[in-house]
Design a protein that fits this description.
3 domains; Penicillin-binding protein 2a (Domain 2); elongated; Beta-lactamase; 35% helix
């Protein structure tokens, strides 16, 4: 800055020349300099006061704003905190093939107590026991008056329960926000979804982990924060699943069965469109596994579709016929000697009815002849039979993405002898799951390609290696159609949908060996439409029994077959299949010419 001199030379010389006192000039400049300094100091002070005033105004606005927010927000309880790793609570949704929600997250609260902060433990214990009937009032009071500093009361509570606890007004009862897994469709697809529970827990969050089904199988994917907006899409169709469950539940009750299962599978992709196991459960309130008893199938948690290992009876006969045709040993019209009983050592193989001395291969399947099927197995041989069933995936647990499927290990003979081959040919001496059976029938329906069942949505056909020729698969499909039109599965006729299939009735084994005389596993394995198969449907009933025409009936033709027919009738339109009018067979008409 430029400073003005107090005694400028020009003015001093001029003043002396005029006889004036030069000191006056110096005093005037000093006065002007002081006035300038005072003006700058005043300006600086005013600026500081302005900044300070703005600061106070901002602080006042912030305080008023915060008070407004607090006044309009819902009051919350203080949350205890501790140093530790963060708990990841977010979990990806699970949806069906159409994107409809099967499993999602729901915000709820936990309830815990800090007894040392409680005012009236006795009153609090009494009120809590009224709100939560499963809690014991005396045990709560003992915990509240003991030495404990922290106590979980409920890991998840409803909004109504939270309000009721809040109305107690005891400061020692606190709430913690958390997420829980919600299954909005209740028990629908329960055995596929499995369920979830809490892992690592804190008062303000809880880690949701899968405990069964696809929730456990894909736990890493579902828990990954990167997949929060990418739901796990299953192959199930929610509408079809609900319809199948309703039909199967009604059929199980009508047939007085102990349990039931059904599987609907796309024959080209292996997608499981519907899988039902009854009795079932609600995954929102998943029951505890049984702690007593040796039979796991009595528990509703037991997944009969992938865990139930059964002898599936005559449904296996079509595999024997298809392999014999594929090997060139027979054709569909080849005549086979079925005179019986067929003896092998001290063992005898008999048919359910007397079918005469001979049947064609097609008629063996149509009438379900054990002797005829065993004759075909003798021609095939034990080694080739085992290799064929292995190619179909019948000797190992199915790779379907349900964690319980790993326990569905087929039961095989220790020594695969000629006798074993003969009994296995008609579904005895080997035990597999209904999921194995569905995959095997899919190979016949799709033209001879191996299929891996899956509960994940696929993008197009997923054919594996060829396991039989297209000609053999086509012949087998025609045989399955004749079983419905001419054979043991006449109750499977569904007008417009050309169902083909095979019945299977097997005596139920006792836990300690041997077989029950009055208990069976009844199965009907079907394909539709048989002219151009798209789906496989397997229905299995555990210990069915129905009175028809004055007699007690247990065979699959009377039990599992009509249930499957009703299911096809209900779900085929939901799958987009339009019924096709089949031309009637013309009889007693003589063609004449003019």
């Amino acid at each position: 800055m430029t400073r003005t001199p107090l005694r400028p030379l020009a003015r001093i010389l001029n003043a002396r020349a005029k006889g004036q006192n030069p000191d006056v000039i110096e005093k005037e400049n000093i006065r002007l300099r002081h006035e300038d300094m005072q003006a700058k100091a005043r300006q600086r002070a005013e600026g500081r006061l302005l900044v300070l005033g703005i600061f106070f105004v901002c602080a006042y606005v912030a305080v008023v704003g915060r008070m407004g927010v607090l006044a309009t927000s819902e009051p919350s309880e203080p949350i205890a905190s501790a140093v530790g790793s963060a708990i990841a609570a977010q979990r990806a949704d699970i949806v069906d093939r159409q994107g409809r929600i099967l499993a999602t997250n729901f915000e709820t609260h936990s309830l815990y107590a800090q007894p040392r902060q409680m005012i009236d433990p006795e009153a609090a214990a009494t009120r809590l026991a009224e709100i939560f009937p499963d809690l014991d009032r005396d045990e709560l009071l003992e915990d509240f008056t003991g030495k404990r500093k922290f106590l979980w009361i409920k890991k998840k509570i409803s909004p109504e329960q939270k309000q009721a606890v809040h109305d107690i007004g005891d400061p020692g009862l606190l709430f913690g926000p958390r997420e829980m897994r919600l299954y909005p469709n209740g028990s629908v697809a329960a055995h596929v979804l499995g369920g979830a529970g809490f892992g690592k827990e804190g008062v303000s969050a809880a880690e949701v982990i899968g405990v069964a089904g696809v929730e456990k199988e894909f736990d890493d994917y579902l828990r990954d924060p990167a997949n929060g907006d990418r739901p796990l899409q299953l192959s199930l169709d929610l509408t079809v699943q609900a319809a199948a469950e309703r039909v199967l539940d009604g059929g199980m009750k009508l047939m007085n069965a102990k349990g039931a299962t059904s599987i609907l599978m796309d024959v080209h992709t292996g997608e499981v469109i519907s899988v039902v196991s009854l009795p079932d459960f609600d995954p929102n309130e998943r029951p505890r596994p049984p702690t007593s008893g040796f039979d796991p199938s009595v528990s509703p948690l037991f997944n009969r579709a992938v865990q139930g290992v059964y002898e599936l009876g005559s449904t296996f006969k079509i595999f024997t016929a298809a392999q014999a045709i594929d090997l060139g040993l027979v054709a569909a019209n080849t005549v086979i000697d079925i005179r019986g009983p067929l003896r092998w050592g001290k063992f005898s193989i008999r048919d359910f009815h007397n079918y005469g001395n001979a049947l064609t291969v097609s008629e063996i399947i149509e009438k379900s002849s054990n002797i005829g099927t065993a004759r075909l197995a003798q021609q095939i041989g034990a080694d080739r039979q085992r290799a064929f069933l292995e190619d179909l995936g019948m000797l190992e647990p199915t790779p379907v993405e349900i964690v319980e499927a790993r326990g569905g290990q087929p039961l095989l003979p220790k020594n695969w002898s000629e006798l074993s081959a003969m009994t296995i040919s008609y579904g005895h001496g080997i035990s597999t799951t209904p999921m194995h059976l569905a995959a095997g029938y899919a190979a016949i329906a799709n033209g001879g390609y191996h299929i891996n069942p899956t509960v994940l949505k696929q993008n197009g056909p997923q054919h594996g290696e060829r396991v039989m020729s297209a000609e053999a698969a086509d012949a087998a499909r025609q045989m399955l159609r004749r079983v419905v039109t001419e054979g043991t599965a006449s109750f499977a006729r569904v007008p417009g949908y050309q169902v083909g299939g095979k019945t299977g009735t097997a005596d139920k084994p006792k836990p300690r060996g041997g077989y029950y005389e009055d208990k069976v596993i009844a199965t009907f394995a079907s394909i539709f439409p048989s002219s151009n198969p798209r789906y496989v449907l397997v229905v299995t009933l555990d210990e069915p029994s129905v009175i028809a025409y004055g007699e007690e009936r247990r065979t699959a033709g009377w039990t599992a077959t009509p249930v499957a027919a009703e299911m096809v009738k209900r779900i085929a339109p939901l799958l987009g299949l339009r019924p096709q009018v089949e031309p009637p067979q013309l009889t007693d008409i003589t063609l004449t010419s003019n």
